[in-house]
Amino acid sequence: MDYFAGIDVGSLSTDVVILNGGGEVCGYSIIETGANSTEASEDALENALAQAGIGRGDLVKIVATGYGRVSVPLADRKFTEISCHALGAYYLFPYTGTVIDIGGQDSKVIRVGEGGKVVDFTMNDKCAAGTGRFLEVMAAKLRVPLDEMGDLSLHAKGEVQISSVCTVFAESEVVSLVARNHPREEILRGLHRAIVSRVWSMVKSIGVNGEVTMTGGVAKNSGVVVLMEERLGKTIHIHSEPQIIGALGAALLARRAFG
Predict the structure, then answer these.
(1) Does the domain spanning 3-126+198-258 belong to CATH 3.30.420.40?
(2) Domain extents for the chain?
(3) pLDDT tens column, 168-215
(4) 245-258 and 81-92 are packed helices; what angle lies between their axes, rounded to 10 degrees?
(5) What is the pTM of this model?
């Protein structure tokens, strides 16, 4: 059987998906990108191949995506992460018309058309506000594990308003709120609200079309998801591993182009 690989090199993580000729995911891997994108792509690919139980020689083609795609010399083709997230989300949830991708250091809202093609998009890649990096900084300041932030915020009895979405200024606000003994849960909810407000302005700029799918690591944060669903007035589709959607889209493009 033929196999195809998609490699998504992001600022914080490098993700790989292995597809077979039937379009089934046979293996995947998520590792930290670190200081060497090329090395990370090699390591992530080997991990995914091991999970799939195949060797590199079994791969027909490899497609790379993400900001670090230029650092993947083993790739046969390279595509933008916009195209890959749109296709990956559409493949998993065929009625997807809007994709909200909140990654490590950027966020995107993509309008998706027939077949998973990109119709329009807007992107924030100039500032860490509204990204996973923003949450990482705040988690460290509040001494809360990153993967527990969402659930903790859902237990808040109230909400503290964070007036700035700038990471530096918001960090100062958090320090001040902690000093005044505000409950961590309420601070977290306020931080999540700030992220949602930032992303919501992007959503409004291109409009909501059809069903909504959320991708990227921040989709694992239940607090952000709940607040975003409130703004949208609808349920958001989220895959069990939202970080691999870009890599899935890349693997699908490899299969489509060469299969």
Answers:
(1) yes
(2) 3-126+198-258
(3) 778 888 888 888 989 999 999 999 998 999 899 999 999 999 999 999
(4) 90
(5) 0.93
